[in-house]
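Deviation from plan, reported transparently: zinc ion complex.
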Amino acid sequence: MGRRKRRTTLPVRKRRKSAFFRCPVCQHNSIMVELHEKEGKAVIKCFNCGLVEEIEMKPGETKVDVYTRFFDSYIERAEGA
Ligand SMILES: [Zn+2]
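Because the crystal trials were delayed, the predicted structure below was used instead.
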């Protein structure tokens, strides 16, 4: 009875803006990045405006790296049109 829950929860630093990134299209913090390391690609999705982008990723890249690259290339495309 009363099985002691052995929870080794590491104190993950919780940020209010969770795992979402800012969307360059709709300006909401509603971007989610999925990494598919095996396939060498990442998928970027926005829950708010429905944007979906697939970009290459290099091994070892984090979501932040991928997102930053996506964001930069998006801005470049948007400006250099
Ligand atoms: Zn969006």
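The two ends are 67 Å apart (CA to CA). We consider this an acceptable substitute for the interim report.
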